[in-house]
Structure prediction request, 185 residues.
Amino acid sequence: MKTIFYLLFNSQKALELLDEQYEDDLYRKSIVIFGLTGFVSFISGFDLLEESKFLIVLLFLVLTICVYVIFGMAYAFVLHRIGKLLKGKASFIEVCSLYAYSLFPLIFLFVMIVLINNWHHFSIDTELANNQIYKRGLFMITSIISIKILIKGLIKFNGYSIFKSILNLLPTIVFTILLWYFVLR
Prediction:
């Protein structure tokens, strides 16, 4: 928990804490974080008080969590291989845990989206629930924070310059920009 708060407010200290942990622990925590991201992402997609079929929702929840874990591991592998092409020193576990921990701002975003989507249950004023500007702004802020964490972590773990770190993250940056453009218009 301490690592998460450091990650959001003092990323250098958080990266030092990650560097001190055992690789087996980092691997398990990475899988849990990918699963948590899938869970919170799934929950952020619908109205919490809406009635639905329990088994179907549970099936889609498990499927979403599995997809997020598989995607997280696959994308961490892509980042690791790009880093190796750029002569990086980081192991797969270090890159995987760095990518997983960089998702925490997005987890907080999904929690905020749950609150925004369900604001009408807590307030008479429903204007906030219909306003997409809050969601777009929060997405941009959390994406920038996540990319900043990834850049600093890749510089630390791979031992190369900021230019190589940005080059390593080029697929992430392009994906984020495309997501902003096509999904959040």
Summary: The chain has one domain: 14-182.
